[in-house]
Amino acid sequence: MAEKQSVSAISARNISAGYAEQIVIRDISFEIPKGEVFAIMGRSGCGKTTLFKVMVGLLKPLKGEIYYGASKMEPISENPQLGILRKLGVLFQGGALFSSMTIADNVALPLRQLTSLSKDVIKELVYLKLDLVGLSDSARKLPDELSGGMKKRAALARALALDPEILFFDEPSTGLDPLTSAELDQTILNINSSIRTTIVVITHELRSAFAIADRAILLDPVDKTVIAQGPPQELRDCSTDQRVRNFFQGHGG
Amino acid sequence: MFQIKSKQKSFDELLIEIEGSISVENAAFVNDELTRILESQPLKNMELDLVGINYLDGSGIAVIRNFVRNSNMLRNTVTLSNVPAEAKRFLETKQCQINESTSILEGIDEPDFSEQVGQGLLVLKQSAYDIITFLGAVIEAFVTGFRRSASIKWDGFTRIFEKAGVDAVPIVVILSLLMGAILAFQAAIQLRKFGANIFVADLVSLSICLEMGPLLTALIMSGRSGAGYAAHIGSMQVSEEIDALRVLGIDPVLYLVCPRIIAVALAAPCLTLLADVMGIIGGCLVAGFSLDVTPATYFNQVKKVLEISDVLKGLTKSFIFGIQIAGIGCLRGFQVRGGAESVGAATTSAVVTCIFVLTVTNAVFAVLFYYFPRIWSF
Ligand SMILES: Nc1ncnc2c1ncn2[C@@H]1O[C@H](COP(=O)(O)OP(=O)(O)O)[C@@H](O)[C@H]1O
Ligand SMILES: [Mg+2]
């Protein structure tokens, strides 16, 4: 634990963000230490995805800054920080696999575009990554031919292609049955423990947050900001805040 | 099954009793029945007795609410009695809440004429602005792409070129052959009167090479490639694939748009050349059959009037058309927000914008070639 808290991988400072005329999140600050599994929780529509988009540079915040280590993240549309992006692996809510390419090509795309590795090495790497998520048999299938859980795993393989230092998951377990989602949680933990990847998981599922997260923040749709942060168990057992208790009890415990 | 009985209770009071079940299957009948009663018995206070109801679903409740609202509009009072317990929540609060739901299904008011014209102009301005910003992004992408040429790999380029160019060959061949034949046929009717049959070659070859060839090809390509790119990139936008590219650090403009622009810009002149040849052949066939101009005389005449510069003018145009078609298709795709409907709108808009832009560009070229007639001649 002590070693984990030494350096912040990500720090968010006073982030406010929203769309057109609607502010979705307001004045959010937090630090994510290197090597930690960090959960962003909150009920649906409270702005988790919005916060995530700001963090990876897809949405320009109205106010505030995101730092990765010492470097500032700028919106991709204005000034893409290739150095930072290179260190990120992102798993979107819907998978976002390129539907016109096979699974293997999906995983190979970042390798082909962003590295100068030879064809054969890329082939090996793709095979390794697909094996890691248990999809080596489906390498030549198109995304449409996979089930929901397999799509998520394929997207994970793509996110892992460049061995990122930080992994983002936007609701990895939506649309998955409890068993598959527990498997995915286990995969996430394995990645975290084996290569010390910092992991940011967005989730509304308590079970998964308890299973994997070292720390969590809880967003509130009414206050539009962080209402609690700390280890998930602590939030559940020790919080006196009514909104926090509602969130944890609302899920049926 | 259901039954509706109405009874006169006093001179201004009507008791309506409904029995049985009201569900989706018969709600429409019940509604008609109640409306009929309401209209045939005006100026009455009503009491609707639901004591005999044994089944009432959402549509049944909606029918009753509708009845209450309609009679309120006729200034009759309605009282409901013996409302089933489960439906109380929706029916008890009648008078006050019922009016609220009246407008939820009606569309937003259409703005008046001048407002619509104004909005249209704003859209046009926005559209022009979008095209210019997008053009900037594309140029920037090309510049960075060439500067770091090692870092971009258009692995799909041959496939994109094949789809945009090679796959369009059959339709281009057929259409231009027919176009040449039709031109010759129309000309034949007039030329025969003057015994100027041989000039059919002039007419067909010049109009095909200068105007019809490039334009026909460009229109075919807008429908195939322009619309295709809008739909493809639009649905990538919807399924977050574009965002996925962005966070991978791959510029979607560089990766998706540049190869498509190059592919279409190269394919368009090739197809145009093909269209020119086929059009002239089409003209030759008709000339042979209905004007007694032998192929040899026809092609001799073509050789005399058609200068290399005419063909090159057409090809220059179609090169520019190609850039425009691919660019507009991709732009419309990137503008998709939301879901499937938006993708459809983008596709339509891509074709319409292409046709508009192509026509305007063609006019500009016409003026240009008028003032510089010797362009491309050696
Ligand atoms: N592209 C968008 N345009 C406008 N509003 C949006 C958009 N995406 C999300 N919102 C709004 O922002 C709020 C938060 O959405 P989101 O961040 O997706 O929530 P979550 O991921 O926590 O379920 C919602 O009220 C939603 O309506
Ligand atoms: Mg979300």
Structural account:
- The complex is a heterodimer of chains A (253) and B (378).
- Chain A is of the alpha/beta class and 253 residues long.
- Chain A has 9 helices and 10 strands.
- Chain A has helices at residues 48-56, 82-85, 103-114, 119-132, 148-160, 178-195, 206-212, 232-238, 242-250, and strands spanning 8-19, 22-33, 37-41, 63-68, 71-73, 88-91, 166-170, 198-203, 215-219, 226-230.
- In chain A, α6 links the parallel β7 and β8 (198-203).
- In chain B, β3 (45-56), α2 (58-73) and β4 (78-81) form a beta-alpha-beta unit.
- Chains A and B meet through α3 of A and α8 and α9 of B.
- Adenosine-5'-diphosphate binds next to α1 of chain A.
In short:
Chain A has 253 residues and is α/β, with parallel strands linked by helices.
**What characterizes the major β-sheet of chain A?**
6 strands, mixed
Largest interface: A-B, 25 and 20 residues
Shape of chain B: elongated
The set of bound ligands, ions and cofactors reads: adenosine-5'-diphosphate, magnesium ion
State Rg of chain A.
18 Å
The low-confidence parts of chain B are none
CATH third-tier fold name of the largest domain in chain A: Rossmann fold
Could you estimate the helical fraction of the residues of chain A in percent? 25-40%
- Our measurement of the CA-to-CA distance between the termini of chain B, rounded to an integer number of angstroms, reads 90 Å
Structural class of chain B: alpha/beta
